[in-house]
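Entry:
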Amino acid sequence: MFVVGVTSAPAGADPGVLQGGRAFGDWQADLPGTIRLIRPQDLPEPGATRSVANPPRVVARPAGAALRVPSGFKIEPFAEGLSGPRAIRVAPNGDVFVAETRAGRIRVLRAAHGGSRPVKKEVFASGLNSPFGIAFFPTGDNPRWIYIANTDSVVRFPYHQGDLRPAGRPEIVVPHLARGYGHSTRDVVFTPDEAQMLVSVGSASNDGEGLGRPPGGLAAWIRRHSLGAVWGEETDRAAVLSFDPDGKNRKLYATGIRNCVGLAIQPATGTPWCSTNERDGLGDNLVPDYVTRVREGGSYGWPWFYIGSHPDPHHAGERDDLKDKVTVPDVLIEAHSASMQLAFYDGNNFPPEYRGDAFVAEHGSWNRSKRTGYKVVRIRLKDGVPTGEYEDFVTGFVVNDREVWGRPVGVAVAKDGALLISEDGNGTIWRVSH
């Protein structure tokens, strides 16, 4: 069996917390245990550096490529040869469901308890439209449905624990989600009381280009719509939507979240969280991506403001009524990291200090002169509350300034407490254990 070379950060290494300008780095400074704290007051002015197009060249995994994990951990391939694996969710019985988005299918992987490789790999459902989000309902140990968020709809399949194929034909739950160009991923979760199904929908544009004025005028729009709601092609986008589990009673749960790629419920509090891609085009270090608790009825500013009351120069003066009403995100991530799926660690394999913290996959930058992202980070919490700090956990996917061999997308906690990480560059799911 092939196992990739693995290196660990030196035992006892403590590079300290990088703050202010020191927190803005690139891939060469990434190392497990490196902690960053970016605060709203640390942000540069728009245009402090020019905006660049710097997409990576994805290459095959080089011979001897080594991923870095903290001391005491190991990382090894769990499943290989997948077709662009993206979001991952683990069923109550331990089966691993993964969205092969471009292939239009959901695959299920089954490993023996504690097994480091799946013993079964089956296509659970195919013929889907760019599926991403996966959720089980009810949310306890015996779900009856598996929900799949396509780019333009939400469907559900009858499901019994252990099914490797659907127990029946799919049912359309939400027939219409905003479709077309722009951000295409949709995630889906259920609130702990099972009363609300939350669905994230990213914006159609980068920065609200061509938005214009709302129908009927701005004053009338504000009176009739949720705080920060956007119109035109952005209607019901850059938002988290709420539905009943059967798809009825659609409403805006939160607005101004440019692209909430990953949704998760914090087990300790029942609070929804988003892992968010922010806008491009304002320079190397603007605008930070973020991971945050999502407040019902809150607006996070897009496209008029970012990270609180910072005005977007492309929309100066358009929505001054929102300036003091924008919710500031909890954890700011280096700009252009492309923050993807997140998962809270509730397993027993890692040391106790990890329990309750979150892990987030960073897909990696294209709009930055020096590459950043391409790693998995740990969101540090204290008594269930984010400190604003995040820590490098898995690094090593970047070859050089031009090439990368892995782009992390999905994270999930396996039944045995290992952390599973998908990357869609070379079609692999990795397993981190302690």
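DSSP finds one helix and 32 strands in the chain.
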